[in-house]
Design a protein that fits this description.
The chain has helices spanning about 15-25, 35-40, 60-70, 85-95, 110-140, 145-155, 160-165, 170-185, 190-200, and strands spanning about 5-10, 30-35, 50-55, 80, 100-105. Helix 3 links the parallel strand 3 (about 50-55) and strand 4. About 30% of the residues are buried. Helices cover about 50% and strands about 10% of the residues. The two termini are about 25 Å apart. The protein has a five-stranded parallel beta sheet, with helices on both faces. Helix 6 (about 145-155) crosses helix 7 (about 160-165). It is of the alpha/beta class. The protein folds into two domains: about 5-130, Rossmann fold; about 140-200, Winged helix-like DNA-binding domain superfamily/Winged helix DNA-binding domain (Arc Repressor Mutant, subunit A, Orthogonal Bundle). The longest helix has about 35 residues, at about 110-140.
Length: about 220
């Protein structure tokens, strides 16, 4: 399956070398933009498998684009490039979510390896996001009481502790645990806990949305 690669690079040439290389290799859909604004306006965040970003763009700040992308859940993995081996710049880019930093000129094999790793990272993010969606759908079918019991289980509490917190009998909690496994389609308690965590039920007893970060 062809991967969608976005290149944001204000190279003076009609196209940066990375574009020629990817076109020659095949297996990629390549979209090139000269500025971060043009890229964001194209609305390709969710479609891109990898973003190649030149940090030192004329009239624009590559780091600022990284800050913007960090606010979007669907942002692709970012491989940043630069003509300068500026270590502080690379560190800042990594802190903002970039997964790799390449100093120009780089070998074609180095670029292709970085892109392959970014695409693999994207696939992993998508796989986990789908697991979270499936888990959330399962948990949403539970009654409020069953959700409370599930949260107690996710915290590692024994039946007695859950019963005390919820003012229930231990036997009632045991019955709820059995119901939970059936409703969640979980054969074991461990499987039920995995579903609870994937759905965003944390150990404090509060719901929260778990996001990957791509970066």
């Amino acid at each position: 399956m062809c991967k969608t690669i976005v290149i944001v690079d204000g190279d003076k040439a009609s196209e940066p070398p990375s574009t020629y290389l990817l076109d020659a290799c095949g297996g990629y859909y390549v979209h090139q933009f000269r500025t971060p604004h043009a890229y964001l306006a194209a609305r390709l965040l969710a479609r891109a498998d990898c973003l190649l970003l030149e940090l030192r763009l004329r009239g624009a700040d590559g780091l600022e684009l990284l800050r913007t992308l960090a606010k979007h859940k669907d942002s692709p993995p970012v491989v940043v490039t630069s003509d300068s081996g500026d270590v502080p710049l690379a560190v800042e880019a990594m802190k903002l979510g970039a997964i790799d930093f390449l100093v120009k000129p780089f070998r074609p094999a180095t670029l292709l390896q970085a892109i392959d790793e970014a695409c693999a990272r994207r696939e992993e993010w998508q796989r986990r996001a789908e697991q979270q969606r499936r888990a959330a759908r399962r948990v949403s079918t539970l009654s409020p009481r069953l959700r409370q019991v599930l949260q107690g289980i996710a915290r590692g509490q024994a039946n007695k502790a859950i019963a005390h917190d919820l003012q229930l009998s231990v036997r009632t909690v045991e019955a709820y645990r059995s119901q939970l496994r059936a409703k969640l389609g979980a054969r074991t308690t461990a499987a039920a806990i995995q579903i609870a965590l994937a759905a965003g039920l944390d150990g404090s007893g509060d719901d929260r949305r778990r996001s990957e970060a791509p970066h």
